[in-house]
Amino acid sequence: MQHKRDTASDSHLGTACRRWLPASLPVSIIMLAAAPLAAAYAQAAPPAQPAPAAQQAATETSPDAIKQREQELEAAREQQRKATELQEKLKADIAAMGQDRSKLNQQLIDIAGQVRGVETRIADAEARLQPLDGRERDIRGSLDSRRSEVIEVLAALQRAGRRTPPALLVRPEDALQSLRTAMLLGAVVPELRVRAEKLAADLGELVALRKTISTERDALAADRDKLKEDQTRLAALVDERQRQQSAAEKDMEAEGTRAIALSKQAADLQSLIAKMEQDLKSAAKAAATASLQGAPATVNGKPNLGALKDPARMSPAVAFASAKGLFSYPVNGTKIREFGGSDGAGGVQKGISLAAKPGAQVTTPCDGWVVYAGPFRSYGQLLILNAGGGYHVLIAGMERISVNIGQFVLTGEPVATMGSTSQVASILATNASQPVLYVEFRKDGTPIDPGPWWTANEGEKVRG
Fold this sequence. Notes:
The protein is α+β, with helices and mostly antiparallel strands. It folds into two domains: 1-46 and 61-248; 252-453, Glucose Permease (Domain IIA). The protein is 53% helix and 13% strand. It is built from eleven helices and 13 strands. Strands 3, 4, 6, 7, 8, 10, 12 and 13 form an eight-stranded antiparallel beta sheet that branches. It has a three-stranded antiparallel beta sheet with strand order 5-11-9. It has a two-stranded antiparallel ribbon with strand order 1-2. Strand 6 (368-375) and strand 7 form a beta hairpin. Helix 2 (27-44) runs antiparallel to helix 7 (172-184) and helix 2 (27-44) packs across helix 8.
């Protein structure tokens, strides 16, 4: 019954088409005009229904399916080979560094910078792809809504040519070229030309969008592969840094356990800082070193920025008070809460909150000594740096901290990673499933506005 209806419809369209088209019109030209319409119809067509079990089983054992599985297996083997080679190279690089702390520090800062740079490129690419994907869906939806028109014009051209064109197998780019050629040769009569031009415009935009999207996705895939390699390298370097640190401080594990015990006795952040720097040996040593260092030397009364390039330094290169406008956010992200604003729980925000990507790298905004690293009340994982001069930097909300109490860390050095969800129970995000980093600056125990310390473009930057 359906076949009869289709035949009758085709016959009617064929008759109409013969009224529109000259009898002497070459069949090849008609085929050129039909090609893009068929391609547009193919692009707008809904996905095919799943094959029955028997047919699916036959497909899975077909030569093409077997070849595809072999290619996937070979790709997996190649990835494993590259991973093994990378691990061996990492071991050789680390062995070559030996106990040279400056080389290790420089590698850590460089690779952490690369990781954050690739994170930024990935976020930018994802932001560019979103509207492109949306426009592609709109065009496909438009073609789908005009499916009956596409079928009508296509059937008319097919019947005029008296044979079915192989257009459904043609790439959209080829179909578009065919349609343009047909219109240039005058093969499309006025009654069909308006329809054909509209479909050609939509098809042309769809082809361009697909090329752009393909280019963006290729670049995105390459960046994601690079990010994995850089993260692997960074993890190995961090492990080596902590191994050397542990070797230097034999009682590191005991100190960490004692720090957690002391933190449970602290009622708030200020008492936590005081307890760490008074009662914990490694934190007290770090605090004493910070107070004894004095302000770093300046050049003509200005901070000596060249000192930041020394990876072997063991004290801040620039005095915290003189470093306004020099700091970068510790993580790639979007600022969702300002200092002094509402904290979402009826109080006032004492720092800033940054919405980040899951697994994002956290680096230090400044030089400083670690005086606390571990869980603390509703702050989740908390890192406190003594930056000298009475200044402290508090960073909370990470999933894992990779430095120890008493350790001196450099600006841009990797110190933690974000989790997949927010770890800061007391600082609510607009999206509860999104990880949030909380950053607070203190001077002599009092929270201060960190705004003046960030680089000029940091407040406008949306990296994550």
